[in-house]
Amino acid sequence: MDSHSDHVLGTVVVVGGCGFLGFHIVRALSQDPACTSVVVLSRQPTKNLQDGVKYYSCDITDLDKTQTLLNEIQPRAIMHTASPMAIDPTAKVHHFYSTNVKGTENLLICAAEIPSIKAFVYTSTVNVVAGSPHVNVSEQQPLWEQTSKTIPYWLSKAAADKLVRASTSEQLATVTLRLPVTYGERDNQYIPAQLAVYRKKQTGVQLGDNKNLTDQVYAGNAATAHVLAAKALLNPTLARGPVAGEAFNITDGAPIFFWDFCRVVWRAAGDTTELKDVKVIPAWLALQMANVTEGLNWITTFGSKRPKALNRLTVEFCLRTYTYDISKARRVLGYEPEVHREAVMKKAIEWEKTREGGVGGW
């Protein structure tokens, strides 16, 4: 690193630093000489803990508590990764808005009022972009409006994405990073879901013709992007273009067919199903099955719950293209992702085995 950028990060607060992505960001910061100390704010700072990091219990929907802690810490930058899981079956609509919108608003209020805070990096999602499919989507495409009929998680993240970028000022530089499906060790969403498919011996079924490309991002690459973005906000000479008030797509930059990526996980877990033995359900039939399931579910629950597995949203995700242009991140931030999917998956599966204590059908 150039001498003029030594310690450019100073003290960094990672909100949600005990989560899956938060863990990888905290680790990246801890290993970076530009960062003098890492502090984590978490509702329950009990898991994914790392040496040399300070942890505080904090609910960002509590403005007074958040202000008090940030005043005490006096960070130079905030990285905000906290959010309910998109697929959390216990999360209600108000939970998404409480954390993703109100919590983000509270952090921005604090950042604007505390002079030490100069940079704010927000972990957004590529799903803030309206419509489907997403084919090589750039950062310029319109986001969901709050009147749109789509899932609350996407709407709340779209509102926060807009809020963060609109809050950039002379005193505070902000940026949003839009991530697709994120994978790696300590993943608590995608890999566990695929392992459930493997354990139920369902890897021999495929929906659609597998011609839909999808983008993902390794959590280590996402963490690198967060660090690069924070440095660029604090020292704009490190960037090759504007960063403050901007959004950046962050992926591995290596699209893969949907079912091929699933099979990377299944193979790492030990699956030996051969492609010639895979039963392919045509796309039209899969969608029809999802419609029937949702219809029956609506009748039995009066529309209060969505079926967990075979719902239309999940089926469409298996069938449609979701790819994103990261040329802006490469050019402006100098972001160069490393792609080692098989090695990462093996490591992630081993971690999952250890977490489960060797039980659970291994």
From TrEMBL:
Instruction: List GO BP terms, alphabetically.
Output: steroid biosynthetic process
Respond yes or no to whether keyword Transmembrane is given for this record: yes
Q: Where is the Ketoreductase domain?
A: 10-147
| Pfam families from the UniProt entry | 3Beta_HSD (PF01073)
- InterPro entries recorded: 3Beta_OHSteriod_DH/Estase (IPR002225), KR_dom (IPR057326), NAD(P)-bd_dom_sf (IPR036291)
List the keywords (alphabetical): Membrane, Transmembrane, Transmembrane helix
Q: Does the keyword DNA repair apply?
A: no
The membrane spanning regions, by residue number, are 7-26
GO molecular function of the protein, one example? oxidoreductase activity, acting on the CH-OH group of donors, NAD or NADP as acceptor
Superkingdom classification of source: Eukaryota
- Give the protein name, as stated in the record: Ketoreductase domain-containing protein
Species classification: Eukaryota, Fungi, Dikarya, Ascomycota, Pezizomycotina
